[in-house]
Amino acid sequence: MGGATATIALEDAEVLEHEAWPEGQHRLVLRAPRCAARAVPGQFVHLRCDPMLPMRRPLSLMGADPAAGTVELLYKVVGLGTARLAARRPGERLSLLGPIGRPFAPVPERPRVLLLGGGVGIPPVLFLAERLAAQGPPWRPVALLGSEAPFPFALAEAREPLPGAPPAATATLARLERAGVPARLASLRGHPGCHRGYVTELAEAWLETLAPAERGRVLVCACGPHPMLAAVARLAARHGLPCQVALEEHMACGVGGCAGCTVPVRAGDGALAMRRVCVDGPVFDAAEVVWR
Ligand SMILES: Cc1cc2nc3c(=O)[nH]c(=O)nc-3n(C[C@H](O)[C@H](O)[C@H](O)COP(=O)(O)OP(=O)(O)OC[C@H]3O[C@@H](n4cnc5c(N)ncnc54)[C@H](O)[C@@H]3O)c2cc1C
Ligand code: FES
To answer: What are the backbone angles phi and psi of residue 67, rounded to the nearest 5°?
Structure first.
């Protein structure tokens, strides 16, 4: 195997922690040392949710600890596979393929990484926020997260300053606060401490506070529902900012062999080309994506 498939490992991952959160959300920690050693933000695993279900399900990596040999996932129950996954208990083993796909690719010339995550699109941007924060300067990530379900994380009062944040947006994820990442939350459902609206409104407000030179150092990275990503792509284009988006598409093989996950993209010459989300993505340049 070459390219994006060259580092994929197959292992029997042991369930270490499995936490249930409101509205069918679950955080899962697996022992999968070969995957953990190589995983980077934006990549995903293809997981057999139950020994009786031959079709694997793709889930983004929310974290990887190479020293502990563990990977962390967050998922929401939406159908048979994720319902079966929710029944798995610590000590059980799941067949895992990963890490898969082209990750986010931050560039040192743009260390102000504006991370936008929505719903089950939060995992890869949280992973990127924590990895960049751990690397220290020059990286200075900012995270804006949206969810209609209650956030499946411990929340904290935001102390890391974020210029432009509306006064009502007082909450953040405790883990981002610990990592020193300025972050704020948004929800149309009016959860306490969250901006009542969209993450793109928080992003717009923050971008407006930046001097032109500082804005020229911003890269936007996002994952979330398609309409949110389309709005983020428009916002980035309006501000002349490069933007990378992690797409989700129905998948079968997950490793580039079946062409079941293709999406149209606009190549450099403007011509349409088909790309496989699993191995040519899931992260794409937002300017290439054909937004439906
Ligand atoms: C690269 C990638 C990363 C993903 N990361 C996460 C994640 O971190 N957390 C998470 O909760 N989910 C994630 N998903 C979506 C997740 O794979 C699907 O929710 C899951 O496969 C559904 O399986 P199921 O058997 O429970 O539901 P199914 O019965 O297969 O489907 C239930 C519903 O979900 C929709 N659906 C199924 N698969 C997908 C898909 N791949 N993309 C979009 N909609 C789908 C179906 O159209 C249907 O409406 C990701 C998908 C991809 C492609
Ligand atoms: S799922 Fe088979 S090529 Fe992507």
So the answer is: -70, -40
What 8-state DSSP symbol labels residue 291?
Answer: -
pLDDT tens-place string over residues 212-245: 999 999 999 999 999 999 999 999 999 999 999 9
DSSP state of 239: T
pLDDT digits 0-9 by tens, 82-134: 999 999 999 999 999 999 999 999 999 999 999 999 999 999 999 999 999 99
Closest atom of ligand 2 relative to the 261 alpha carbon: 4
Q: Name the residue among 265, 269, 270 with its Cα closest to residue 292.
A: 265
Q: How many helices (H) and strands (E) does the chain have?
A: 7, 17
CA-based end-to-end distance of the chain:
32
User: What fold does the segment set 3-100 form as a domain?
Assistant: Elongation Factor Tu (Ef-tu); domain 3 (2.40.30)
Query: Was domain 112-239 assigned CATH 3.40.50.80?
Result: yes
Which of 77, 145, 248 for mutating ligand 1's site (highest number of atoms within 8 Å of CB)? 248
Q: How far is the CA of 205 from the centre of ligand 2 (A)?
A: 38
Q: Whose CA is nearest to atom 45 of ligand 1?
A: 250
Listed by start position, the domains of the chain span 3-100, 112-239
Distance CA 288, CA 263 (A): 11
Q: Residue 10: phi, psi to the nearest 5?
A: -110, 120
Tell me the three state secondary structure of residue 145: strand
